[in-house]
Amino acid sequence: MSAQKKKAFQIEAFKHRVVVDPKYAEKTWKILEHAIHEIYNHNASGLSFEELYRNAYNMVLHKFGEKLYSGLVTTMTSHLKEISSSIEAAQGGLFLDELNRKWAEHNKAMQMIRDILMYMDRTFIPNTHKTPVHELGLNLWRDVVIHSSAIQSRLQAILLENVRRERSGEVIDRGLMRSVTKMLMDLGPSVYQDHFEKHFLEVSADFYRLESQDFIESCDCGEYLKKAERRLNEEIERVSHYLDARSEVKITNVVEKEMIENHMHRLVQMENSGLVNMIVDEKYEDLGRMYCLFRRVPNGLVLVRDVMTSYIRDTGKQLVTDPERLKDPVDFVQRLLDLKDKYDKIITSAFSNDKTFQNALNSSFEYFMNLNSRSPEFISLFVDDKLRKGLRGVTEEDVELVLDKVMMLFRYLQEKDVFEKYYKQHLAKRLLSGKTVSEDAERSLIVKLKTECGYQFTSKLEGMFTDMKTSQDTMQGFNARHSADIADGPVLSVQVLTTGSWPTQPITTCNLPAEILGICEKFRNYYLGTHTGRRLSWQTNMGTADLKATFAKGQKHELNVSTYQMCVLMLFNNADRLSYKEIEQLTEIPASDLKRCLQSLACVKGKNVLRKEPMSKDIADTDTFLFNDKFTSKFFKVKIGTVAAQRESEPENQETRQRVEEDRKPQIEAAIVRIMKARRVLDHNNVVAEVTKQLQSRFLPNPVVIKKRIESLIEREFLERDKAFSQKEDSVDNHDDTSSGCFLIIVSNDEFDRKKNYRERNHHLDLDKDMDEARPVSLMISTLLIRSDSSAFASSCRLRNKLPLPDSPCIRRSKTWTSGVDKIHEAFDRSELET
Description:
Layout: H1 2-6, H2 24-40, H3 49-61, H4 65-89, H5 94-116, H6 118-128, H7 133-146, H8 149-167, H9 174-186, H10 189-218, H11 221-242, H12 247-259, H13 264-268, H14 275-280, H15 284-294, H16 300-321, H17 329-349, H18 355-369, H19 375-390, H20 396-412, H21 416-433, H22 439-453, H23 455-482, E1 492-497, H24 514-530, E2 544-550, E3 556-562, H25 563-571, E4 577-579, H26 580-587, H27 591-602, E5 610-613, E6 624-627, E7 637-639, H28 650-679, E8 681-683, H29 684-695, H30 703-715, E9 719-721, H31 726-731, H32 737-740, E10 745-748, H33 750-763, E11 778-784, E12 793-794, E13 798-804, H34 809-815, H35 823-834
Parallel strand pairs: 3-7
Antiparallel strand pairs: 1-11, 2-3, 2-12, 4-6, 5-6, 8-10, 9-10, 11-13
Helix pairs in contact: 2-3, 2-4, 3-6, 4-5, 4-7, 5-7, 5-9, 8-10, 9-10, 10-12, 11-12, 11-15, 16-18, 17-18, 17-19, 19-21, 20-22, 21-23, 22-23, 28-29, 28-30
């Protein structure tokens, strides 16, 4: 039983042989052939598709698939030849309609035939690797109809003519064009490309070549770009309506090449309408159109960028080298800002904020701004003007906007240390004169500078604000201790300043009035009593004073003057007439300062509280001065002279430059030593490159100067030449290392490390820090003087003077350093003390 269960169940074939009618295949094919004819003749409604399918199925099943397939090819070919003749007979505009109608009928017939022959399509055709029925119908249509010489050339000509008519502004049947081109695409990519697209692109190139030539001769640049853009958009639209999507890139390339690339140099440089004129006239729409079109062609944007860069550099160079523009530093910087705003707007609105254009703009500004060596000074003067009065009543957001624009120009400066030098001077005058609009704005700018250049750049500037705050506390203590002593005398206001943080001022002599010396001495005793190891020294060139003056008929005015002017005016309480020599002898004011002082008191209309004999604009040693009791003014308070920052004269500018160059030397030396400590052995050219890289955030050091500093360090035994290269050095000693690329190898001196370690252990100083941190301290005093009513200048006098303090303890120690201390530090500290 179990054996029977395990026996497999099998279906066996019929034992007897099935006999097929020899004429079966022929009869069945006649039925199917008749059905195909009826389908092509639009009589398919009377056919039984189920019966036809069964017949086709049986023919394949009985191995007559080949007869069925070959009969299908023959029958379809016969009908397509009739269709081809019908299409060829179509006249004029009916040609495309007839072709499209016959194509639609053929597709419908193919669908029905495919349904009837579905079994053959699924079994016989894959096994014999023949073409499927539907694809067979497409191939036969292509070979019989489309490849017909009469139809092929006519179809191509009509399609291209319709495109030409549409380009000329005529309306065509886009739906019909879409059907015909889709037919070509359905027949295969090669059919569409060979029978239409290739010729379409060639004709289009010729069309746009001629049209662009006509446009370039008759239109300006802006109008030409509009037409080119319109043509480009038309072609893109044409593709979307009735061409293959893959044709878009090809036809747009044709338009771009013929209408833009072939004429882009002429367009950009077109007279009275090219790129430069668009920039000058601020034609943002035309510039944006040029950017969009030129970005489509190779090197198009490069050309636009180069022309724009050249123009910006030329105009910028004219601005910074124009002597008339340089007369007003504030206007000079404002024009730079306006120029930058203009180009920024162009790049943002017209050039899609392209980073390459932004970089080109930055490079251009950096180029021409550094052509003028006074750019750092002018930017500082612009800031000074804004922070004195230009930002008064302006909102906080607008203040930040102005400061951001200033920082933008600051970034272009290569000599940032020169800007620091001037900015420190101007900031000092603003703080000491109390003329700053907003302390918050001052601190905001310092924060921006700190973010841009680091802590070292702004440490002294921040120290200036710290000194001003400390001065207030010092004055509160002084007034509290001496309130009874100074109740009837001058009121003193003192600013204690760290010399290392504030600009170095020359110590000038000036004989202060006797009434002031008493209160000054009291403050000196108070300050030295609370601070040990310091020395006070007045710097009267920075002071200001308020004087109450009585003129004829009892008319009184309050005069705001400098300390020098106060000293001169107070002399006329005891004399009606004084010669220049007498004033110079009594005040001991330096001659140059005294002449400027007397000129402002006697030669300025509306502020001439003194009279000069003989009357002239210049001050001579033989002049005599008298008190002008007829002085009148509609204002009670009269300001004579000012501490406001002014543009330096050429000699002053040269002197500042020399000071900057001297300040750079220790920075270069410190950078060299830092590099050699890290690298130990390095050739000359690499030392120059590394030093330039480290210092470029502050200034670009001259390779010749770097070479001299290296030689100085070698002489002071901080560096030494590699002995292995000494022979090679000797052979090139007669040449300039910096230009000939000599084999100079610099080795960090081991003795230097020993000395530096000794210094750090004993003095807590780091070579990598600026020696300016160990500078002396200075002090600013303001005094209020009370005079008797019988004097011409009476009631009150406010005086501000700058007093350097003695050396700090670390500086004093530097004087007693032994030979074991680093020579470079001794040199730095000695130069600071001498200064």
